[in-house]
Amino acid sequence: MALAILVCFFLFLYIVYYLSRDDFVLTRNDIPVMRVFSLVFLTGIVALFSARFFFALAYPASLLLNPLGFLAFYHDFGLSLVGAMMGVEVFIYLYCLYKKMPAGKIFDLFSLAFIGVLPVGLIINFIFSLGRVELFTNLLFIFSIFLVLLFGKLIYPFSAKGEIKDGSLGFIFVAIFSFLYFLTKLFLNLKDFSFLNPESILLLIMLFSSLILLLNQEIMDKFLAKK
Questions:
Q1: Where are the domains of the chain?
Q2: Which pLDDT belongs to residue 92?
Q3: Is pLDDT at 147 greater than 90 in this prediction?
Q4: Rounded distance between C-alpha atoms, residue 13 and residue 90, angstroms
Q5: What's the whole-number mean pLDDT along residues 65-80?
Q6: How far is the C-alpha of 164 from the C-alpha of 39, rounded, in Å?
Q7: Taken in order 204, 158, 164, 100, is the CA torsion positive or negative?
Q8: What is the rounded CA–CA span in Å between residue 14 and residue 7?
Q9: pTM of this structure
Q10: For residues 97 and 82, is the Cβ–Cβ distance under 8 A?
Q11: Helical H runs in the chain?
């Protein structure tokens, strides 16, 4: 698992570099690639912490309810992908607000990088697990390929041409991902599924908040601009 995270992290860095090196918005705001890289490293730390924190909330155990157990990744490598995404979203917004960076553009770049990294991470996990993975993981891999095709062929070109606002691509990704993730968790575990589970609550918050922000940004702003 640690190797998979390292490989995905460096792949994430490369995708961010490839997308940001000639980006007009970053150039206009005088933001060099190295400054974006610094944010990637900080975001990685936040993602790891929030993934561990929300995993401990969703699956409480004595190991995770004390500081040493919480940090003992080598003993129990439990992480919450949903928790990592939530932590990263909040951190990017607050950091960009503080540093006066274009939060929408950064959010889009990081979302695209995550979309590109996700199937690779799942493949590495499949290899190291010798094919012994849960049905949920297999479905998540199918969803990740769908996201790569959807955003690579359809949504990213609209964003690159400026036909949708900065941040909208990220909102679309979060909405689709949280919706698919939530439905998969629900139908694979109808008997024991709980809407009060921290991960379920986070998924619903991510889904509805991203939809509200997307509608406000792409529809309400244009509607009000016509008046």
A1: 2-226
A2: 95
A3: yes
A4: 20
A5: 65
A6: 24
A7: positive
A8: 11
A9: 0.89
A10: no
A11: 2-20, 24-28, 33-58, 67-71, 81-99, 103-128, 135-150, 156-160, 168-188, 198-215, 221-226
